[in-house]
Amino acid sequence: MREVTLQDGPDGYGTRGAALRAGARAAVGAPAVVLAASYLGFGALVRSADWSLPLGLMSTALGFALPGQIVVVEMAAAGASLALIAAAVALTNFRLMPMTLVLMGRLRAPDTPRWWLYALAHVIAVTSWLVALQRAPRLPLAERLPFVAGFSVVIWAVTLTATAVGFWLHEQVPPLVSLALVFLTPLYFLLMMVADLRQRARVYAMVAGTLAGPPLHLLTPEWGLVLTGVLAGTLAFGLDRRAARRAAPTDADPGDV
Amino acid sequence: MSEGLATGGAVAAILVGAAVTYGWRALGTALAGRLRADSAVMQWAGCVAHALLAGLLARMVVLPVGPLEETAVWARLAGVAVGVAVFFALRRNVLLGVGAGAATLMAATWATG
What we know:
By secondary structure, chain A is mostly helical. Chain A contains 12 helices and no strands. Chain B has helices at residues 3-32, 40-62, 73-89, 94-111. In chain B, helix 3 packs antiparallel against helix 4.
């Protein structure tokens, strides 16, 4: 039995269609509301950078991952070169690579067309990733991808809507409220992580990453994020391996990082 | 700068950012098919992803870029502490935890002018 945590659900929905609808329903609620608030802030940022609404929607539709989107808006406004923007986004969004690597291996059924995975990959961001890692392993293999797809596409549609609403609200939101909107993003992601600290390796990784992130950013703003992930993640991996060797074999859960 | 040139630059920036972002997603997807889900490499990738995200969140709270730069670091840390406390006190309610944390930041910022 698994511990009851943030998002619990049944161990299967019967068909792929039912799993798709269940995923869509799971997204309507706290994840959609809080992400909507984050993207209201992004819409306001787009407006404040004197971009048009279509540009803001294009950013959310194509560049879907909030930290990278904010980097693009701020660097373009500052007149940075395309090469510099590409490098900054690559470093900011590097995390998506190990994220999809871990997730897709668990979603793939033997008869899953590969392009389904590549299409789904576009809408995998932190929220859908955390929920998918929590919910998918308990579903039958065939229902995992539809569940995550239903969840992710609803989240994606909500963020597009929120970008437009935030753009429109820009002049009507007091500065203090816009501060709170910007603060929702790290706070929400942080709670999602803390809620899911069931594995020892995740606890190590979160603690090491939290401690290493700010000083490494000060040391080298360009490389800080990549260094944090690689160094703190490798340290956490090593510590977890050592602890696993010491503990009873049944204590380890190597397939579920 | 003319309106058209500014828009063209923004479109190019968005497209470059989008291509790079999808590139990482596609690479992760491509590699996933070739590595076992329970391999040591996958475990390591999970650790890297979690550490990187935790590092990014810590950086966004301690060393923010943008409007949050105007707020005090203690106010942001108080917001995180209250958010986490409310989240666990109220049966892991994300909305109430996030709302309480954001309200704490607003109140602290308002009170200190």
